[in-house]
């Protein structure tokens, strides 16, 4: 049996473990698996830092609700960077985006950007499934104005759902090639992962990385990742 080629997808993956019940042993196993699979990074909760690994270390901020104050998010991001995080995935106040208050969204992101300046990579989770198309565009523009490096679809914890190819395509159309686009949340098959890439994703947040990478490539792009 021929082993599927992992190389097209593996370098795009943030191999993720954000379950609240995750243990130190679970995170260490995640890191070893990421090294074996050749993923770009691991993404873990800030309380699990530091992690010894040869791959990039990412963490989350204001997770998963985004309803923390900007000062708390900034302090959390700064602490995570001090503990070894090289990338920070922050959650916006989704209610502010739903209100159309994009200046508040921008200011919130800017506070985290100031606390975690480049070369730290800042990804902004907009919880796209909870937003209209207009709100997705507004949130993405706010993220770009605040100096973010990526916009990201979802936490994977919101009841509205996770990533969709439609949201990824709209986010890519909004930020062009100026920012990265990360698809995350509910991506459980290789077909779904490939659909996200086809729609414009440049990074994938996956918890089922091995199963997805070891599956045979699909014959064509899928329709939706959730």
UniProtKB/TrEMBL annotation:
Documented EC number(s): 4.1.2.4
> Which gene is the coding source of this polypeptide chain?
deoC
- The signal peptide, as residue positions, is none
* Localization: Cytoplasm
Keyword annotations for this protein, in alphabetical order, are:
Cytoplasm, Lyase, Schiff base
User: In this entry, which stretches build a coiled coil?
Assistant: none
Q: In which family does this protein belong, per the annotation?
A: Belongs to the DeoC/FbaB aldolase family. DeoC type 1 subfamily.
Name the job this protein performs. Catalyzes a reversible aldol reaction between acetaldehyde and D-glyceraldehyde 3-phosphate to generate 2-deoxy-D-ribose 5-phosphate.
Q: In which pathway does it act?
A: Carbohydrate degradation; 2-deoxy-D-ribose 1-phosphate degradation; D-glyceraldehyde 3-phosphate and acetaldehyde from 2-deoxy-alpha-D-ribose 1-phosphate: step 2/2
Catalysed reaction(s) here are:
2-deoxy-D-ribose 5-phosphate = D-glyceraldehyde 3-phosphate + acetaldehyde
Name recorded for this polypeptide:
Deoxyribose-phosphate aldolase
Named from the GO MF annotations, one term is: deoxyribose-phosphate aldolase activity
Q: What is its main location?
A: cytoplasm
Recorded hits in Pfam families, A to Z, give: DeoC
- Which residues carry out catalysis? 89 (proton donor/acceptor), 152 (schiff-base intermediate with acetaldehyde), 182 (proton donor/acceptor)
Per its UniProt entry, what is the enzyme's top EC class, as one word?
lyase
Which domain of life does the protein's organism represent? Answer: Bacteria
PANTHER family the UniProt entry points to: DEOXYRIBOSE-PHOSPHATE ALDOLASE
């Amino acid at each position: 049996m021929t082993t599927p080629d992992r190389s097209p997808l593996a370098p795009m993956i943030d191999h993720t473990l954000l379950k609240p019940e995750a243990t130190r042993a679970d995170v260490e196993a995640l890191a070893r698996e990421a090294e074996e699979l050749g993923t770009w990074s691991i993404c873990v909760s800030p309380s699990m830092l530091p992690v010894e690994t040869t791959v990039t270390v990412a963490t989350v901020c204001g997770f998963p609700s985004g309803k923390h104050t900007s000062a708390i998010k900034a302090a959390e991001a700064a602490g995570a960077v001090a503990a070894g995080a090289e990338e920070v995935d922050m959650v916006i106040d989704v209610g502010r985006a739903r209100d159309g208050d994009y200046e508040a969204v921008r200011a919130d992101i800017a506070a985290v950007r100031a606390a975690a300046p480049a070369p730290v990579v800042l990804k902004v989770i907009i919880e796209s499934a909870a937003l209209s198309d207009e709100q997705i565009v507004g949130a993405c523009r706010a993220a770009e104005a605040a100096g973010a490096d990526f916009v990201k679809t979802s936490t994977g914890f919101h009841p509205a759902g996770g990533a969709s190819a439609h949201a990824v395509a709209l986010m890519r159309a909004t930020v062009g090639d100026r920012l990265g686009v990360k698809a995350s949340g509910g991506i459980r098959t290789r077909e779904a992962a490939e659909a996200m890439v086809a729609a414009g994703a440049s990074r994938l947040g996956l918890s089922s990385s091995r199963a997805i990478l070891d599956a045979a490539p699909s014959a064509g792009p899928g329709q939706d990742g959730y």
